[in-house]
Amino acid sequence: MKKKQVTDRRKFILNMARGVGIAAISGFMWSAYIDEATASQLLLRPPGAIKEDDFLRTCIKCGLCVEACPYDTLLLAKPGDKKPLGTPYFTPREVPCYMCPDIPCVPVCPTGALDESSVTTDGKLDITIADMGVAVIDEDSCIAFWGIQCDACYRACPILGEAITVEYSKNERTGKHAFLKPIVHADACTGCGLCERACVTEKAAIFVRPREVVQGKAGDYYIKGWDKNDEKRLKNAKEIKTTTELSKEKAQDKLNGNFLEDMY
Amino acid sequence: MKTLWNNYRYLILRRFTQISILVLYFGANAWGWNILQGNLSSSSIFGLIPMSDPYAVAQMLVAGAMLTTDLLIGATIVVLFYMIVGGRSFCSWVCPINMITDLANFTREKIGINKLTGVKQPASRKIRYWVIALSLIISAIMGVTAFEFISPISMVHRGLVFGLGFGWAAMLVIFLFDLFVLKNGWCGHICPLGGFYSILGKYSLIRVHHDAEKCTGCMDCKVVCPENQVLSMINKESLPVLSGECTNCARCIEVCNDDALGFSVRNLIKNNKTGE
């Protein structure tokens, strides 16, 4: 009888250990898959989408935004699309966002992954402040930069004259023609992708990418001294202190000593 | 015809609800119906009443997402509904995977795999609770809803409503797994959503009740039951099926020729003798 009890307990411990082992294996594979599956940074989200990290945990993948979209712009990522599974996205070259003034896709979101307040000004829905991405121009393949007259993107832009303007400059090559170059203004661009859709080149020379992907960051060391708004950034400025072998002594001591010997 | 209805009435009703729900969701996306919009993760009835998958909401919670009121109301509605009709009635009356696994089970029986493997199953039915725990741990660590990214249920359902992609592979894998690897493998062993509804189902109102007086011990119910561990009282005691793992699929009721099984509302006051 006593012997049997011991075997039972051993059996139980072995079973638990087995369970833990299998759980560990599957847990690692599971998290590795999720890490890969959520790594895509290049896809464009519906208007009002919160930050990508938060979006991935908040979107419940119900597709209500997709159903609300009257232009079939929005799609849910299918297995095989190589995008975070089940989350909404759009491909502007195929169907851009037509920037409906009543933004039907946002208020239907049950989870707040599409945040109504981020597309509201003065209590009214305002699609022009949406931030789905930023249009970027590849000047090498944009024919307007070659000197051929084309303002397809400029004409297609729903915030005409604000998000894209045309800059005139002299064409030195011919000496008698002008360049009409499109310029994107990132602060006004919503990333709707109508320009990308309209672009006449084989592969669009103007295309929308998520803002974080295409924008740099000057950091706290550089402030526009002439701009009162930019100076506000100094309030949250952080100091990064690097300590190296050199910074152990004062600069003067270093110069007064025989530093030349150190160098050669 | 009468015996057909008598022996398959709940099966026919279940297929009817499963397919109707699918069609309603499909129509919402394809033709703009507003009866049932969204999908099984979250939806709205007439664009008014929200419903949300409580297990997905639980994952969102541990992943650190902000939960909106709509979402919480939706999850509460779903929880209350299944508290009444039986937690895992979701599995047998709503979930589209049920049709795949039922087909696998049917084929398994027809080509005689069950006879070869015998009654003993090589895996524990407790796996699903491990998967729940694992999904919550991974959700918390990775900050995403872990199961929602691999769930074949949402993959298939979303696929049927919004476009399948490689979702057919998920269907095929589950079918083959249930057919050749493990009887009732996905729904009865692994699926954490089923596990979640099993936990809810412990407290639900509508139950299958057994009348041992009438039972002749033919054990047809145990053969047909996808979770036959819940039928431990058959031919022994007149008890209701109290395990949350019962899916209320009612196959046992329709195969019983002795009228020894039937749906009934459980007594709310605990009776020590019947365990109710």
Task: Write a structural description.
- The complex is a heterodimer of chains A (264) and B (276).
- By secondary structure, chain A is of the alpha+beta class.
- Among the domains of chain A are: 44-130, Alpha-Beta Plaits, CATH 3.30.70; 131-215, 2-Layer Sandwich (Alpha-Beta Plaits).
- Chain A has 10 helices and 8 strands.
- Chain A has helices at 2-37, 52-58, 64-68, 143-146, 152-156, 194-198, 211-214, 228-231, 251-256, 259-263; strands at 75-76, 88-89, 120-121, 124-125, 134-137, 164-171, 177-184, 206-209.
- In chain A, the strands form 4 sheets. A two-stranded antiparallel ribbon of chain A has the order 1-2.
- The longest helix of chain A has 36 residues, at 2-37.
- With 276 residues, chain B is mainly α.
- Chain B has 2 domains: 2-199, no CATH class; 206-265, Alpha-Beta Plaits, CATH 3.30.70.20.
- Chain B is built from 13 helices and 5 strands.
- In chain B, strands 1-2-3 form a 3-stranded antiparallel β-sheet. Chain B has a two-stranded antiparallel ribbon with strand order 4-5.
- In chain B, helix 7 crosses helix 11 and helix 8 crosses helix 9 (167-181).
- Chain B starts with a helix and ends in an 11-residue tail after the last strand.
Quick recap:
The complex is a heterodimer of chains A (264) and B (276). Chain A is α+β, with helices and mostly antiparallel strands and 264 residues long. Chain A has helices at 2-37, 52-58, 64-68, 143-146, 152-156, 194-198, 211-214, 228-231, 251-256, 259-263; strands spanning 75-76, 88-89, 120-121, 124-125, 134-137, 164-171, 177-184, 206-209.
